[in-house]
Amino acid sequence: MKPILAITMGDPAGIGPEIAVKALSKKEIYELCVPVVIGDYEALSEANEFTSLNLKLNEIKDVSEAKGEYGTIDFINMGFLGKRAWEYKKVSALTGKASFAYVKHAIELAMDRKVHAIVTGPINKESINLAGYHYAGHTEILADLTKTSKYAMLLSSDCLRVIHVTTHVSMRDACDRIKKQRVLDVITLADEGLKLMGIDSPRIAVAGLNAHCSENGLFGWEEEREIIPAIEEAKALGICVDGPVPPDTVFVKAMAGQYDVVVAMYHDQGHIPLKLSGFKMDLKTNRYTSVSGINSTIGLPIIRTSVDHGTAFGKAGEGRANEESLVDSIKLATIMAKRKFNL
Questions:
Q1: How far apart are the C-alpha atoms of 71 and 198, rounded to whole Å?
Q2: Is 90 exceeded by the pLDDT of residue 251?
Q3: What one-character-per-residue DSSP string does 26-51 give?
Q4: Ramachandran region, residue 220 (left: φ > 0; alpha: ψ -120 to 50; beta: rest)
Q5: Which CATH class is domain 4-148+300-341?
Q6: Taking a C-beta distance cutoff of 8 angstroms, is the pair 110, 101 a contact?
Q7: Span 152-274: which CATH code?
Q8: What is the DSSP pairing of strand 34-39 with strand 4-8?
Q9: Over the stretch 125-152, which tens digit does the pLDDT of each residue have?
Q10: Boundaries of CATH 3.40.718.10 in the chain?
Q11: Buried-state track 235-273, b at ≥16 Cβ within 10 A, e below 16
């Protein structure tokens, strides 16, 4: 049995609809799973036209109706958009409301076990907040709607994985949130998440917060008081974990194969090396030649993967968006679903 995946279209004003049709134009996807897009007909239809893919669009009411046939996109039409009722590249409450509804419906399908996993396209944080949904991003929406208290963002590229202790908060607030229990929770989630991804004995490295891991207290105390006690407790639980490792070398070691994942203390500590490892840009054409990266939320009662980029308003509606991250996200969701549901 192939896993059934709900793929949310993302913000219609961004590149979400375009990368959805581009990803689903690939035969390899249909060999792995049954994808069902949650979105709006008008946005999907327009993306199908300006990309010149000319795929068949099959509107369904229930995922059980999905054909899962290469050349046809099965989709559930949420009906928020009239013909050209939205504007590309523009923040708006309309597209924010629509993109939130796509995610909410996908979560409901996953919680009801009608789909095995969800894969989310990019949303615009300003737009969803304009629509009245006051969340920092996808991760917080998923945690709230699934009533999950312990969760973490895990990013993956071809050669690096990073999981975060803190994410969408200020740097000042992030430092205050580096506490033993949270660090321990994320180490445990890293172990759980990698096993779901097919790594049976994960090797986990924990990055320090301060320069040189504080140099025995010269540059801070978080390592001694919060991070090291969490690592020692994780070891007592039988988890293969090392650290704290200085942040300026831990990612080099992970990319060399010494570790399977790095526990990063804050957003940019993890995101910068991940995107350096997976994103490539050609300045002559001003285009990304590679956009490899997957965002997974670990700790939820459902499987969720996502693209590791935003709505890219600058190129929305132009047919030049790169679908690589979405393709990678679909493939990983398939692997995780097969492990979780023994498919």
A1: 30
A2: yes
A3: -HHHHHH-EEEEEE-HHHHHHHHHHT
A4: left
A5: alpha beta
A6: no
A7: 3.40.718.10
A8: parallel
A9: 999 999 999 998 898 999 999 999 999 9
A10: 4-148+300-341, 152-274
A11: eeeebebebbbbbeebbeebbeeebbbbbbbbbebbbeb
